[in-house]
Amino acid sequence: MIQQEIERLLPQVSRPSRYINQEWNSIHKVWSDVKLKVVLAYPDLYDVGLPNLGLQILYELLNKDEEVLAERVYAPWIDMEEKMREKKIPLFSLESKRSLVDFDVIGFTLQHELTYTNILNMLDLAGLPVFAEERDERYPLVVGGGPCAFNPEPLASFFDFFVIGDGEEVVLEVVEKLKQKEWVRRRSLKKDLLTELQMTPGIYVPMFYEVKYHSSGSISGIRPVIKEAPGKVRKRLFSNLDMLDLPEKPLVPFTEVVHDRCSLEIMRGCTRGCRFCQAGIIYRPAREISLEKAKKRAGELIDQTGYEEISLVSLSSSDFSPIFPLVKYLVKREKEKGVSVSLPSLRMDSFSVKLAQKIGEIKKTGLTFAPEAGTQRLRDVINKCLTEKEILETVQNAFMAGWEKIKLYFMVGLPTEAEEDVKSVIKLARKITGVALDEISPAKKRKLNITLSVSAFVPKPHTSFQWAAQNNLLEFEGKIKLLKESRSKFINLKWHNLKSSLLEGALARGDRRLSKVIEKAWRLGSRFDAWSEHFNFDIWLKAFQENNLSIDFYTTRERLENEIFPWGHIDSGIKKEFLWKEYQKALKGEVTLDCRKGICTGCGVCDFKI
Amino acid sequence: MHRVRLKLAKIDKTRFLSHLELMRTFERALRRTSFPYVITQGYSPRPKFSWGPPLMIGASSVSEYVDLFTKGKIGVQDLVSQFNLNLPEGLKVIEANYIDFSLPSLMSLAAVALYEIGVEVDKDINEEIIKDYLDSFLSLKKVKIVKKGKERVVDLKDKILSLNLSKVDKRKILFRAMLSLISETISPFQLVELILAEKGLNLVQIDVSRVELYGWKDKSLTSLMNL
Lengths: 610, 227
What we know:
The complex is a heterodimer. Helices cover 34% and strands 14% of the residues of chain A. Chain A is an alpha/beta fold. In chain A, helix 3 packs parallel to helix 6 (167-180), helix 9 (291-305) packs parallel to helix 10 and helix 13 runs parallel beside helix 14 (419-439). The longest helix of chain A is centred in the last third of the chain and has 21 residues, at 419-439. Chain A is globular and about 70 Å long. In chain B, the strands form two sheets. In chain B, strands 1, 2, 3, 4, 5, 8, 9, 10 and 11 form a nine-stranded mixed beta sheet that branches. Chain B has a two-stranded antiparallel ribbon with strand order 6-7. In chain B, 24% of the residues lie in helices and 41% in strands. Chain A binds chain B through residues 7-8, 10-11, 15-17, 20-24, 252, 254-256, 302-308, 336-340, 362-364, and chain B through 13-14, 16-18, 20-21, 24-25, 27-32, 39, 43-47, 57-58, 86, 88-90, 205.
């Protein structure tokens, strides 16, 4: 029995509760009662994967169908993998502890590029060949969805198909087809089945497309190789967010996880138009739930989970129209029980400080803002639409209201960035320190802490900066050095791993040829690349080299206007001309205002008739 | 404010929860009930609890103790059943009792734990041999134990109040041990290692279950539930 064997391993691994399931609200169905069995896979550690909202929505959505069963699996940590390989225990689902091969479909959440080697590792641990073409109809279908599916090309060789865009409806359509096709009885040939599935809007089957390259390495054409396949795969859009009552009963883990709280999605998409932001484009158009629905759902989520905190999730929480009434309602409802509210992303204005103060009536939390760039010029380039006056006023309000710690996010390596822009990050932080010292009481001065969290800019597909060159390692290192040299008292500087940002950049804008690179890196031992203690850049460089590819071609090369992108056949609904126009405006430092505040920017997404 | 003492079972898969995970799980179960619990003051308010001594990961237990503080008095039956509706499989409230608010904390009362220890070895073994092993072990008086990388010498009679053999069946041995919870403790896992050290036997499996926790009352050991 696999269950017993697993339990024998558990005392020997770190945090065994990651592998036991039985979490509150986990769903256990009888294997023999269903027609179709799906396992939802998150290619990172349990602690990172469990809170993922997309996976939790699909978990409940699929399990609502009596004929379908959905279970979960996360990437086992290094120590567990070692034991499993030693004892020849295949990768198993948490709920029924069955090998992944026993399922009909394995669905991966593609949240982040640096999880790609974990996908291969999980397939291998489950006993599946990693390449799709080596898996016949005896194996489960391997499908991917989530933000990284908007450029699925580096993963093209490993997946049977991808779901592009919002999954809520398309996943059910696919499930219906699989049930009808009696795929479960293994009667249909895989190619016929995939031909049938790709008729569903939003489904992309990479093996039905052929990619050709210029001798320079860039793409000369992407075209379907079967007549049924569309030239472009349009993303799916779930338009009425107010109708989505999921998750109703989120999973409550035993162990501490990264976002250890229940989450209510109050808004999907954003109209701000920051030019570096991929989420801001691919989740367009922005959709909100109603205040009434938000109140009802938030209360239910808290009651169903017993969590000590609820997060009101959106790309820009302060843009949710009735945010203040919602927060006020929740603070009143939960004060007695001590359940707190958190907002993941606050715009830098005095309204946000007012919101944070309201939240602070239950639990005092830290304040985090994202000015992203140090100078007005560069903030205009990225279309942040935030002035220094607004920044300083916001922090002044915050210090007056009693905060002594503030965290600020910045990026280095943004297009057009000069030395002055980098130095200005610290200059701005010093001005903020100055404001703080004027506002806070002398007794509190010792506690003053301005944390600057600096990341290396990664140009992403479907954004205005998809044409832009990423900085090389030397440039990034030079910029971090500049920051380090000029920091001063009260300023705490943190930065992300620069090499991993370069890898992220290559994979983000990569083409199909990177499948071989990913496979090589994995065979050479790469996994958990998002974890700095396991990330090994040299392995990756070697993997590129062995495939006669240069990482610079993908990262530091500025693309031409008419270049065919590897994701050219994936349609986010946003016009390429709009993005190019925005890129040109960026280079001139011109801003484009939020379309909710006036003129339509002509991005093209509203053709969807929401 | 009222103080209610709960005795919990932590069995099956929940034996893999750490003490901290148990606390968090219990706290969230409490929030799912409608009990008028007391919350702590300060920056991050939480329900007011006071836990008994922690258990090692991997051991099951039918004697996890926690004191809960409530604003109003809830019927004991109601308390037990509501908790059990809201606890994940494997965790269960076995007993609840309102106790005097001024009693010392569980941590300061708990002195001795009774464990049931099931051991499976890789060779058949008989009762005589095991009894010999136990006798020679108990005659040692002092033993070396390693705690957090540091070696310590402890007096056996202070640490082991009793050690009995319950059953031997081919490769399986069942012990019952009363172990001290006061400073420099010997864990049941260490105990098995010490008994079987250099005996040419390999451990296949070890199952530890904490049966009861005791404190001293009028010079006799009394269950924490009755203190």
